[in-house]
Amino acid sequence: MNRRPRSFLYLTAALSMIAGLLVPATSALAVDGFADDPTTEVVEETLLNGEEESVAEPEAEEGKADDSPESPDSTGTGVPIPAENLMVPDETEPQATNDAATVDDSWQIRDAELRALESEERGSRLAAQNALTSNVSSTSGFRAGYIISDSNFYNANAMSVSQIQDFLNQRVPRCTLGEPGKPPGGIYYFPNGDSTRLAMKCLRDEKFSTPNQPANAYCKAYSGGTGQTAAMILQRVGAACGISSKALLVLLEKEQSLVTDDFPAQHQFDRATGYACPDDSAGGAMCDSRYYGFFNQVYLAAWQFKAYKTNPSNYNHVPFQNNQIKWAPDDKNRVPVDCGRSTVYIENLATAGLYNYTPYRPNQSALDAGGGTGNACSSYGNRNFYRFYKQWFGSPNTFFPDVPQSHQFFTEIEWMGTSGLSTGIKTADGREAQYQPKTRVSREAMAAFLYRLQGANYRGPAVSPFSDVKPGDPFYNEIAWMHQMGYSTGIKQPSGKPKYAPKDRVSREAMAAFIYRMEKASYVGPAVSPFADVRKGDKFYNEIAWMHQKGYSTGIKQPSGKPKYAPKDRVSREAMAAFIYRLKH
Q1: Is there a contact between 379 and 365 (Cβ–Cβ < 8 Å)?
Q2: By the 8 A CB rule, do 408 and 63 touch?
């Protein structure tokens, strides 16, 4: 396990001295790809040919019963509360407790070197334990400005006590403290003669006495007690301070490998989350022993992250603007001493918090190394946070912040973003691009989806094929391409020139026709319809039956057993993602 020196903002006893006051210059958010109008519902949408559509009505989603409720979209970020100054009367730092073990400096030998020895000693064992995790590329998808979504980081109910305990048991199937040469609470000797004091138990088994913590500016009251397990502390602290217990578990691993270590040292508990452990120029962590102890470390780290969220403008790394972030700590023994900085637009509160806690950005060499070592200017703290979270819990930074991994069509919508088919819809404040899965798809957006799906490159003619779309209009090239390809003939008009109706919403039968034509399909539907509400002879019957035959549409489940297609219902963006994904997979 690669244990790099800790990288944190050093915190003093007074809250007024916690914050860094460097405020980088602001900049406007730019979303790559097609422009999105925050005043409209659509960024990209598709069209319908040759049919006038009825007034929009609620849509039952593909694969769901038609009585399933629709819930409003939410980013889960809340509204940042700016602080006018740091001297807020009730913002006092929680009191540290005395659950830390007494430290004997005589056996604490050269902390940074000691951790390197431990890394070599335990690497092979931890590799086997890490086989429990996913085999996906551990750093793929890392985004410097969006390491983890706010909804993931601030999910106070992410795990129950029993789920956390089961997780800890899985990470360490067998605690080896007590085996020969590893006396609990005793001295462990490394092959070169150096030593460290071992803990009494592994994290999964240890119990702690914890104090009551009164409610404060950032956390609700915490009820202390005796015999509290690590799982209990992580869940209760997370609930009190509004921080995900998944994030806290990852923090423990990133800082001290405490989650996966089967014979941890006492100092790993003392400095469990790296709170008040700033980097020094020589690479050794110089921690403040007043904050030692597992409970202190977990509680104060959660408290600090909540402070970052509540007062985002009071710290060195500010969300929703450009920030200058160092690649690595300065090191007088390295050439160069200062590795420089990069400009990062921090997209959300949680990512800003991570940079305020660990103020370094992993360079490409660190990311390319996966869990290994990069070059002299690599840093690993935020890389490892992303890496462990992804391996244990799935992607921390879903492409669209309003589509969590629990969403029914998460895979399909995530693919829409990562493949470039959807750039998202900007929020009114311009801070982020959402997918807005429940929004209905317009005809112009459908054109854009299909245009990108085909990798088209087309310049529309000087004279538009449609009466209501002209050169220079949004998505004109995409709409003209639809006509040129024969995917849309438009809606007939008495004047003779058809209209496209770009803002109208797309029906499910029209979408079937678009995809059928794009695939150049030729199909005669069966005598018995696969859907309860579509029969042979209906308009677009062949196209709809073909969608079922190809597996692109399974319909909407019904109590009678035979699904319905709901041809006149409008297509939502999440259903559109599902259709297009099935088309390509």
Answers
A1: no
A2: yes
DSSP string, 447-499: HHHHHHHTT------SS-SSTT--TTSTTHHHHHHHHHTTS---B--TTSS-B
Distance CA 487, CA 480 (A): 10
pTM of the model: 0.61
pLDDT above 70 coverage of the chain, percent: 75
pLDDT higher than threshold 80 for residue 546: yes
CA distance 413 to 576: 9
**First CA to last CA across the chain, in angstroms?**
37
CA 257 vs CA 65, 151, 238, 279, 394: distances in Å: 46, 25, 20, 18, 19
User: For residue 406, what are the CA distances in angstroms to 153, 394, 402, 403, 505?
Assistant: 15, 11, 11, 8, 27
CA distances from 285 to 253, 341, 378, 379 (A): 16, 22, 17, 15
d(CA 306, CA 229): 23
Provide the CB-side half-sphere exposure for 226 (13 A, CA).
0
Q: Over 60: is that where the pLDDT of 579 sits?
A: yes
User: Is residue 128 pLDDT above 60, yes or no?
Assistant: no
Q: Choose among 240, 202, 235, 234: nearest CA to 218.
A: 240
Half-sphere exposure for 437 (CA within 13 Å, toward CB): 29
Distances (CA, A) of 68 to 54, 142, 304, 505, 564: 23, 35, 40, 21, 14
Contact call for residues 430 and 563 (beta carbons, < 8 A): no
Residues 249-294 pLDDT 10s: 999 999 999 999 999 999 999 999 999 998 753 333 578 999 999 9
Task: Specify burial of residue 436 (Cβ count, 10 A radius: 0-12, 13-18, 19+).
Answer: buried
Q: Do residues 318 and 356 lie in contact, with contact meaning Cβ atoms separated by under 8 Å?
A: no
Query: How many Å apart are CA 14 and CA 7, to the nearest integer?
Result: 20
In whole angstroms, what separates CA 295 from the centre of its chain?
Answer: 27
Instruction: Report the C-alpha gap between 353 and 132 in whole angstroms.
Output: 29
Count of residues making up the chain: 585
Convert the pLDDT of each residue in 56-68 to its tens digit.
222 334 444 333 2
Q: What is the pLDDT of residue 75?
A: 29
pLDDT tens digits, residue range 326-350?
Answer: 999 988 888 888 999 999 999 899 9
Banded pLDDT at 433 (limits 50, 70, 90): confident
Token pair listed for 369: 């190394």
To the nearest 10°, the Cα dihedral for 40, 43, 49, 53? -30
